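Final report, closing paragraph on structural work. Over the funding period we assembled a curated collection of sequence-structure pairs, and we close with a single example.
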Amino acid sequence: MAPPGPLAALLSGALLTVLVAGGGDASRSAATPSLPVLARSIDAQPGTALRADRLARTAIEWRGGAITTSTGEVVNVLVSDALPVESTPEGWAEFIVKLTHGPELSLLTAYIVPLDEVQELCGARALGCYSSNQMVSLGDAAIDENTAEEVVRHEYGHHVAFHRLNAPWRAIDWGPKQWASAATVCPRVSRREAFPGDEGQNYSQNPGEAWAEVYRLMDERKVGITTATWRIIAPAFFPDEGALQAAERDVLQPWTAGRTAAFRRTFGKKTPKVWWIPLSTSLDGDLRITAALPGGGLHEVALVGANRSTVLRRAQWIGQRSKRITTTVCGQRSHFVRVTQSGALGRVSVSASTP
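Its predicted structure, as stored:
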C-alpha cells in the first residue's frame, strides 16, 4: 500500500489535533472503503499550535470581516490578500453558513489563506488549524487530493466539538456525546483501540479526529456529495447510518445534561424480596443511583448487567438510610438496579441519573 500523504494540523485549546492529508483514489466512494487506511505518525514534535501571538505578529494582509449572509446570519471571515480576488470573504461566508451548524457559528472567526500562510500560522505540515473559536484553513485548490472545502468542513467539525459536551470527557478529544456513544468510543478506549487527544503515533485512532471527519462526511452527504473519501482515519471509525444520524443530532440537538428517573416501592410481608428496576442507558457517561431505605432497612442495592446475573457495582452507605452507586456507562445499553429487601420493611425510593 502506498504511504499516506503529508500531515495537516488542527489545534483545539491546549490539545493538538492533526488533520492528515492522505493519499489514495479521491474518486472512490466513502461508502465502500475497501483497503485498510492508516495515518502516518508524526515522527517529530509537530509544533502546529495556532496561537494568538502568531496571528498578532503576522504580516498577512486581510480583506473581509463580519459578513451578513443570505440567511441573515453573520459569519466573521478574513481572506488573505495573497489569494486570488475570486476568493472572496462573502463567498466563504456563504459556504460556511451552509454547513450543518448551530449557534456556535456566531462565535467563529475563519481565516482563509494559501498553503504557505497556513503553514506560517499552523506549522510546517499543516493544511489548517483550530483553537478556541479561531480557524485557519486552506483557501487554495486541492492539495494532495484535499480540497479547501474538505479542510474547512473538517475544521468546522472541531469548532462544533469545542462547543459541545460529553461529560465526564471532553468532546474535543472524544467527540460529542451522541456520536461518541454510537461509535463506541469509550469501549474502544478501554480496549486501547482509540486514543483521545493523540496526534502522533495513534493519530488514525484519535476519536476527536474521527469526529471531525465524520462531521465532514455527514455534511457532504447532506449536500449530495457521494464521492467523499476516508483516507486519514482508521476504517473502524467509518460511520454507519446510525453514527451519521447521531453526528447530525450532536450539531442540531446537542446533549446538555443527563436524565433522572425516580422509582418507589413498598416492601411488605407478602412483597417479593427482590425488586428489579430496568434502566435504559443509550449514551455513555456518568451514572448515579441513590436509594433511600426505611429506618432499620439493610437492603442490598446493586447495579446488574443486562443478563441479570453480572453484578457491576454494589451501593455503599452514604447516610443512615441511604446508599449510592456512582459509575460510568461505557458501551452497555441496558442495566438493572436490583434491590434485595433485608431488615425492616417499608418504602424504598430509588433515583437513577443516567447520561
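DSSP finds nine helices and 16 strands in the chain. The longest strand covers residues 259-267. We thank the funder for supporting this effort.
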